[in-house]
Amino acid sequence: MTEAPRSQFLSLHVLETLVAVLPVRDENGSPKSLVYGGVERHMITSQSRRRAERMHARDRANAGVGALAGRSTGLRTREWALITAKSLEDDHGWDREEAVTTARAVIEAVGLKFGDLGKKTVANLTKVLLFAPADTGTRIAAHVHEHAEELRTWRDDYLRAQEENGKRKAGRKGARKADRAPEPEEADGAAKAELPPLAKQHRDAVLFAIAPRDAIDIALYGRFLAEIADSPNVDGAVQSGHAFTVHEAEQVDDFYAAADDAKLHRKRNALDFLDSADDAGAGMTGYQSLISGTFYRHAVLDRAQLHTNLRATGMTEAEAAGTAVAAEQEFVNAFVEAFPEAKKNSTASTGSLPALVLAFEGARPYNYAAAFQLPVDENPVGPEGEGRAGEGGEGPAGPASVRRLLRHHAFVSERRPDLTAARVLTYDPQIDAVLKKLAAAGETDVTAVTLIEELTP
Q: Of 370, 356, 360, 340, whose CA–CA distance to 294 is shortest?
């Protein structure tokens, strides 16, 4: 039997209830929010979700777990010069200082800008984060070591020219401070030392090392590198929306007092009340903002873009097809399982499980945020039914939002024949009862599954 062709887009929707957490915050440490439907909602940004999902999939792959077990993944960092230097030092026996200066010079020569040499904290960090395969540093180090003699000569010339330019720049700054007009050759830049270019074979080797290659998470989430025109960018195959509460936001400012163990020990063992008085009070106090609510979030996988990205790495058609299926399985797993880790120890937020996951295929992405433009009214349900006008609210946000989402999907499905293979997964027995009730009433036509792996065909 021939399988029906899969649609281009896989749409994923999640409803999850979180209690007293702070997964993401703004520059002031406060919860992020947005206004939608005329009321303020709590928001968990797509950036925080995407990173959590990417790290979840990468950690599983590196641990030999899941559909991508053992496959290449990426690393997003500003520390590629330090990572390369570490490989030169550990794998090839280079001196640490020489390894760092050489790695920095080689990477800088291909077009990446570094921090100010005069500032130790950033001198060996690129100015932008570079998302590249995790073995990039060891590949660059191996090439540098193989051509050590030639590259050492080039490096010395490169650093000498850099030093000369630095001295000229410092001289011009001093002249301006002394209110002295610069000499003509300083003004037009004619005296600037020319940095020796990196030979083509070495430049190509570095560009190949930082190219996306077969890193699966780069194929999924994409990357943009403007600094090097001839290093390929990747259009991501995953689209992610900000999560928001389906009801109006409510924030709690939690006052906390942290105990000083040594002070309490003295207080308990004080010989008289005067000693005890000296040790009164908490060791530290403060406030932290916490949020609770039922959130809707949405993501889309573009299967065609994923296949294109994998083929661009040099995979055959068969290899790309098999890898794309594995990548999709792991992406769905991460979408359901991963969670931003801010304050995870003090709130146990990463233990949350979705109330409902809805997955379906279509010829285009489908975002169901409109189902919650009117915020859920959690007041008790009226006597005539669920949230009918003038007769009460919709009850708890979890079941109410599930009813809304699935009815919204049923309504759209009647008008969009490309929507197929709709599946739902729940970890909540109350929601399971809602699903059975909706199915019995003929209000939804979705297949209930019990495992994440069953969410996609």
A: 356
Q: Which of 55, 12, 4 is nearest to 332 (CA)?
A: 12
Beta strands (DSSP E) in 151-240 are: 238-240
pTM above 0.85, yes or no: yes
Q: How far apart are alpha carbons 365 and 12 in whole angstroms?
A: 9
For tokens 């011009």, the residue is 172
Asked if residues 357 and 370 have their Cβ atoms less than 8 Å apart, the reply is no
Sign of the dihedral through C-alpha 339, 340, 343, 344: positive
What are 10's strand-pairing partners? Answer: 301, 361
Exposed/middle/buried for residue 178 (C-beta within 10 Å: 0-12, 13-18, 19+): exposed
> Of the ranges 23-27, 79-83, 419-423, which one carries the lowest mean pLDDT score?
23-27
First-to-last C-alpha distance (Å) of the chain: 15
Over its C-alpha atoms, the chain yields an Rg (Å, rounded) of 29
Quote the CA–CA distance of 23 and 43 in Å, as a whole number. Answer: 10
Q: HEC string of 277-341?
A: HHCCCCCEEEEEEEEEEEEEEEEEEEHHHHHHHHHHCCCCHHHHHHHHHHHHHHHHHHHHHCCCC
Contact present, 12 and 332 (Cβ < 8 Å): yes
3-state class (DSSP) for residue 403? helix
pLDDT, tens digit, 9 for 90 and up, residues 193-246: 789 999 999 999 999 999 999 999 999 999 999 999 888 899 999 999 999 999
DSSP letters along 235-276, please? --SEEEPPEEESS---EEEEEEEE--HHHHHHHHT-SSHHHH
Angle (CA) 359 334 370, round 5°: 40
Whether 171 contacts 165, CB under 8 Å: no
